[in-house]
Specification:
The complex is a heterodimer of chains A (about 180) and B (about 675).
Chain A lengths: L4 E5 L9 H9 L10 E9 L4 E9 L8 H5 L5 E3 L5 E3 L9 H5 L6 E3 L4 E3 L5 H5 L5 H5 L5 E5 L15 H7 L3 E3 L5 E3 L1
Parallel strand pairs in A: 1-9
Antiparallel strand pairs in A: 1-8, 2-3, 3-10, 4-5, 6-7
Chain B lengths: L1 E7 L9 E7 L2 E7 L17 H5 L9 E3 L7 E3 L2 H19 L5 E5 L10 H7 L5 E4 L5 H11 L15 E5 L3 H4 L4 H9 L3 E6 L11 E4 L5 H14 L7 H4 E2 L1 H11 L2 H8 L3 H13 L3 E5 L9 H14 L10 E2 L23 E4 L3 H7 L6 E5 L3 H4 L3 H9 L3 E6 L11 E4 L8 E4 L5 E5 L12 H15 L12 H8 L2 H7 L12 E2 L19 E2 L3 H5 L20 E4 L14 H6 L9 E5 L1 H6 L7 E6 L2 E9 L7 E3 L26 H4 L9 E7 L2
Parallel strand pairs in B: 6-7, 6-15, 7-14, 8-9, 8-12, 9-10, 11-21, 12-13, 15-16, 16-17, 22-26, 23-25
Antiparallel strand pairs in B: 1-2, 2-3, 4-5, 4-17, 18-19, 19-20, 22-27, 24-25, 24-27
Helix pairs in contact in B: 2-16, 3-16, 4-12, 7-10, 7-11, 7-12, 13-15
The chains are: A alpha+beta (about 180), B alpha/beta (about 675).
């Protein structure tokens, strides 16, 4: 079976500190309106139970096993590498925005400074030199990691990022560890 | 060829990170955390990641500027020669008119904590007696509380926390504001430690730990006293308490006679069962570490809150043991030498004005203040008493601001002096939390015509003495690097375990204190013991024992307590989003603050999520957008300190009426600012 690299996030040690977001945006020199990696706070506040889960989801392109962006792109601007990274080639992109409209995770975004679609490329040039992606490198606690995905079970937290049927369809290569709850004393 | 240099992040932050920069052909191209420094461990926070852009930002002020009319925004570029001449002539005119240099005032705080940033204070000392802002807006009450209890504030090496079995994070949010401590806490958790967070609201830190205790704002001291009472009732007091402490009998009597647990539960909002459970944990799990943040001492009873928490550590014998302690901060690795050392900065006849009452005190000063130099701070946005500031400005004949960017404060300046970043000058930094000390090297030439604080001090001294020889006793030239060597005197070299200051060029070093503070239990109090009963506190008109003092009650018309905790992307009003701002043509993005309130509070005011509203009190009116959060108390409004960098924007502290803390004067020269005693009403925008 081919390799499939992807992101692993241990939400129990993610601080929501924004370091991964900044590391990505700065090093990839993204315009301020564009963020390949985003941060969301998810609250499951059920006070009656005395247990509360609040966690931060740091999300980027999920480098799906069956990438919808690649399927819908009419100009062949997407490709999937042997290691599973889904690449977008701006020079082939005609800015038709099909990928932007179809990705269940809103990973491809319009880049106003190039006039094309754009998304996380999993820092493939760094990976090829044996370095970690900027976001993983920047993570202060090791919560965000790069992993070979094939051994990870699909996790229910992915449901938070997209409707369930599309998950089965695109098979995102991202794994979130189950959050631990905080007890309210 | 690419070169690397060492830097220290100089901001007012626990972490004081060791940074390695890479330059190529004289231009900064990358920065990273230093992997060899055991606290930074190769990682930097989100606040710092924009720095290269910040250094080269088009928004940065790169030349001396003059503003013909204050607040006009009509700046004109002038030469350093002109700027220094204007300042020098003002100084000479003041000397001639008043026969003293006291009308010259300097107001500086923590924009950059590097020791070479003390240059202007040393320059002023060379002029004669001047007026200085003294104290701190931040941590004064807590510093003084620990001075009464232990003789000084002195925390363990933060790496010591990894060995704790029970960690209480009380009034701190390290997940956002001391991020390098979190891996240490996580390692302790992996080794089986239980971690509890105490705060007024469910913070990012609370979300990552085992238990959360929501304390009503300002009642932390009472909660600690309630826990202390249970410890006493359950016989969990350290058997050897007599040996290392003074006054525990009086304290225990106070607990027995004055603390009612039922009342404690009602006032603090923490259930009686929870108080008992907390006490049982703290009394039986050893070692137990309490990390007290700055938040809970920003009240009119802030010092008492901290003394009550300290008492828990002393009662159970946790102070002085590895993995234990009540950790607040320290200044122990700041024992610098030479003319820029902190303890040599003042002139014996200086007029010292409390930094938190600077404007009102300055207005009453006689002889009056005529020239004001503001550096490393932004008081026209961050201070309380803004009305007093506006009045003070009218009476001044010259205002000088030295900074990197325009701020709310620079808007009032007559002269703006552009300064260098920590990538452009030599410096020397210690942390008030971890035990590392490091040299900051320049990696690039100053951008534009920016000059370091020390260079400005030399140049001004030179210009003054050209105009009137003998006016300034401060040197007129020198080497920044030499100033670093001078600051590293024999005491620091011994602490750092090196023979020559140059050895510190190889990277930051840890001072050689034992990892555990007070491990010999020889305290620096008059008795040499931990003082539950502090005669020195009594001498200052304070309670001798840690007792409960309630925080302020809100006025009837402004019933909500406003809290303004730090946000992960910002440190007060310092510019961290310049990259985004530059990209947006300097329009600073979305400017409206998010006011987070409980859904029940919103209902009472007829508000829903996303509504526009105003927070108001007699300081003014602040537009906000309402966000609902169930975990926030019904009498509290929380605004994280976002969106503070726009000099033209509205700012949070216009609603801060300048309430002071109970302690701080004795230990730091001035009371602290009780920021969390700010009360507001909400009005829906119609």
């Amino acid at each position: 079976m081919a390799k499939q690299l992807g992101f692993y996030l241990d939400v129990n040690s993610c601080l929501g500190c924004g370091a991964c977001i900044k590391a990505c945006a700065n090093n990839n020199r993204l315009p301020s309106s564009l963020k390949w990696r985003q941060l969301r706070q998810v609250d499951e506040l059920n006070y009656d139970s005395g247990q509360v889960a609040r966690f931060y989801l740091s999300t980027a392109c999920n480098h799906c096993a069956n990438p919808e962006c690649m399927r819908v792109c009419p100009s062949g601007a997407y490709a999937k590498r042997r290691d599973g990274i889904v690449l977008h080639f701006p020079d082939k992109c005609t800015a038709c925005r099909s990928c932007i409209a179809s990705c269940p995770f809103s990973a491809p975004q319009y880049n106003p400074s190039t006039g094309k679609a754009s998304k996380c490329q999993l820092c493939y040039e760094r990976l090829d030199k044996g370095n970690l992606p900027y976001c993983v490198q920047g993570c202060l606690t090791g919560a965000l990691q790069l992993r070979e995905m094939s051994h990870n079970p699909a996790d229910n937290l992915l449901r938070l990022t997209a409707p369930l049927p599309t998950l089965r369809l695109t098979k995102p290569s991202t794994f979130y560890k189950t959050p631990r709850k905080t007890t309210f004393l | 060829m690419a070169e690397t240099h060492y830097h220290i992040c100089p901001r007012n932050c626990y972490d004081t990170c060791s940074i390695i920069s890479t330059t190529y052909k004289g231009r900064l191209i990358a920065i990273e955390g230093n992997p060899a420094q055991a606290y930074t461990k190769g990682k930097l926070c989100a606040k710092v990641m924009d720095e290269i852009h910040k250094v080269y930002s088009p928004q940065r002020v790169k030349y001396p500027l003059r503003q013909r009319k204050r607040f006009s925004g009509q700046w004109e570029r002038i030469s350093w020669e002109e700027a220094l001449t204007i300042i020098s002539e003002q100084i000479l005119a003041i000397k001639d008119s008043y026969g003293t240099t006291l009308p010259i005032a300097h107001n500086k705080y923590s924009g950059n904590f590097g020791i070479l940033h003390n240059a202007l204070e040393a320059f002023m000392t060379g002029l004669g007696p001047t007026t200085r802002a003294v104290g701190s807006p931040c941590w004064s009450a807590g510093v003084e509380a620990q001075a009464y209890d232990m003789g000084a504030f002195f925390c363990s090496d933060p790496l010591d926390m990894e060995g704790s079995k029970l960690i209480w994070i009380w009034g701190a949010n390290p997940a956002w504001n001391a991020v390098h401590q979190m891996p240490i806490i996580f390692r302790a958790m992996e080794r089986g430690a239980k971690v509890v967070c105490f705060d007024t609201h469910f913070s990012a830190t609370a979300a990552r730990v085992h238990e959360f205790v929501q304390v009503k704002p300002g009642t932390d001291g009472l909660l600690a006293l309630g826990i202390a009472k249970v410890l006493v009732e359950q016989g969990l007091v350290a058997p050897d308490i007599e040996e290392y402490s003074l006054g525990h009998e009086q304290f225990i009597t106070y607990l027995k006679e004055n603390i009612d647990l039922q009342e404690c539960a009602e006032v603090t909002g923490v259930a009686l069962d929870a108080i008992k459970k907390l006490a049982m944990d703290y009394g039986t799990i050893k070692p137990a570490c309490i990390w007290v943040g700055f938040g809970l001492q920003r009240y009119s009873n802030g010092g008492q809150n901290l003394r009550a928490i300290d008492a828990l550590g002393a009662l159970t014998g946790n102070i002085g043991i590895p993995g234990g302690g009540v950790q607040y901060g320290h200044f122990e690795s700041w024992r610098y030498a030479g003319p820029l050392a902190h303890d040599r900065l003042g002139h014996p006849q200086d007029r010292q004005l409390d930094i938190n009452q600077f404007a009102p005190l300055a207005r009453k000063a006689e002889p009056p203040i005529k020239m004001l130099w503001l550096a490393s701070r932004n008081p026209l946005q961050q201070d309380g008493n803004q009305e007093e500031w506006r009045e003070l400005l009218k009476t001044l004949s010259l205002i000088v601001v030295s900074d990197l960017f325009h701020t709310s404060t620079s808007a009032c300046a007559d002269i703006f002096l552009p300064v260098t970043t920590h990538y452009e000058h030599w410096d020397l930094n210690s942390s008030y939390w971890h035990y590392y000390v490091g040299i900051n090297e320049p990696a690039i030439e100053p951008v534009g015509e920016a000059r370091s604080d020390l260079q400005i001090a030399w140049d001004l001294s030179k210009r003054l003495n050209e105009l009137r020889p003998g006016t300034s006793a401060f040197p007129t030239e020198g080497s920044e690097q030499e100033a670093v060597w001078q600051a590293l005197g024999p005491e620091m070299l011994e602490l750092l375990g090196i023979d020559s200051p140059k050895e510190l060029l190889k990277g930051p070093r840890r001072v050689n204190f034992p990892a555990t503070a007070w491990q010999d239990r020889k305290f620096r109090t008059p008795s040499g013991k931990y003082e539950f009963y502090s005669a020195r506190a009594a001498e200052q008109g304070l309670p001798a024992l840690p007792i409960y003092k309630p925080p302020l009650k809100p006025p009837a018309d402004t019933p909500l307590r406003r809290l303004t905790p730090h946000h992960y992307a910002r440190l007060n009003s310092q510019a961290y989003a310049v990259a985004a701002e530059d990209n947006e043509g300097g329009n600073y993005g979305s400017l409206i603050y998010k006011a987070r309130i409980n859904p029940a509070t919103a209902q009472a005011y007829g508000l829903k999520s996303g509504d526009k509203a105003f927070l108001w009190n007699r300081g003014g009116s602040l537009p906000v957008i309402i966000e609902l959060e169930q975990s926030i108390g019904q009498d509290v409004v929380i605004i994280y300190q976002e969106n503070l960098t726009n000099p033209k924007g509205l700012y949070l502290n216009q609603l801060n009426l300048g309430v002071l803390t109970d302690m701080g004067k004795f230990a730091t020269g001035a009371y602290g600012l009780a920021l969390n005693e700010t009360f507001v009403g909400i009005r829906k925008e119609v």
